[in-house]
């Protein structure tokens, strides 16, 4: 399947693509291969006016989500249609997936993540229970996604600290936590409304942008993080 798609993708007439789309597709391919290496070999993409269509096959649901996450960070991408499929092994049952995911969760550092309950139905993993922060939700989601046979992960987790802190308290805590890192935190601005945090400003590279988001997700009371921070143009 992947070979057929790859053959098709390589024979799209170049005149159908505008130069910006051609350049964007090249940048996406480079980033995918750089960050995912062999896992990106069977991922195919097509760009049209900044809208990216993904197809092909990967071994893990986590790889499908990683590809999407990488592409979201690239300037010029307007939307992503992720039609990547997960390679299935008929020998892997829901009970096998449940055991593997449970083991992964039990090996997490956070106690609340270890206590997350799961249900598996036809390869779809539903996470159930309560954790302390949004970051712990993300940890549980990623742990579940890294197992063979998983087609999708559904988040039914509640955040215990949600609603317990004022927006002002959350905002103050964000700046306090960022100030204890090497990030140029004075260039990061935030807005908090009902526990939903929007981050703005500039940092030196994509790793710093992701770190600022990760730190914010680990703050109690945060329900969601919308990251608008850009990489500073040092040219």
Automatic annotation (TrEMBL):
Superkingdom of origin:
Bacteria
Q: Which residues form the BON domain?
A: 20-88, 93-161, 166-233
One Pfam family named in its UniProt record: BON
Which parts of this chain are annotated as the region Disordered?
1-23
User: Per its UniProt record, what InterPro entries does this chain match?
Assistant: BON_dom (IPR007055), Lipoprotein_DolP (IPR051686)
Would you indicate the residue range of the signal peptide? none
This chain belongs to the protein called Osmotically-inducible protein OsmY, contains BON domain
Q: Which species expresses this protein natively?
A: Alkaliphilus peptidifermentans DSM 18978
């Amino acid at each position: 399947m992947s070979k057929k798609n790859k053959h098709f993708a390589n024979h799209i007439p170049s005149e159908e693509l505008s130069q910006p789309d051609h350049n964007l597709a090249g940048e996406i391919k480079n980033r995918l291969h750089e960050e995912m290496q062999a896992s990106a070999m069977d991922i195919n993409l097509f760009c049209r006016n900044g809208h990216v269509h993904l197809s092909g096959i990967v071994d893990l649901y986590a790889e499908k989500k990683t590809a999407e996450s990488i592409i979201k960070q690239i300037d010029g991408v307007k939307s992503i249609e992720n039609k990547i499929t997960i390679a299935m092994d008929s020998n892997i049952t829901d009970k096998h997936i449940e055991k593997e995911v449970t083991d992964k969760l039990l090996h997490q550092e956070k106690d609340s993540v270890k206590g997350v309950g799961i249900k598996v139905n036809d390869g779809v993993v539903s996470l159930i229970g309560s954790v302390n922060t949004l970051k712990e939700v993300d940890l549980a989601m990623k742990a579940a996604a890294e197992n063979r046979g998983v087609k999708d992960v559904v988040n039914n987790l509640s955040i215990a600290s949600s609603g317990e802190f004022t927006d002002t308290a959350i905002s103050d805590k964000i700046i306090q936590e960022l100030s204890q890192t090497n990030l140029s935190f004075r260039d990061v601005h935030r807005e908090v409304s009902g526990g939903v945090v929007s981050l703005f400003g500039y940092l030196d590279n994509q790793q710093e942008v992701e770190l600022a988001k990760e730190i914010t997700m680990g703050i109690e009371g945060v329900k969601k993080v919308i990251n608008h921070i850009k990489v500073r143009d040092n040219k």
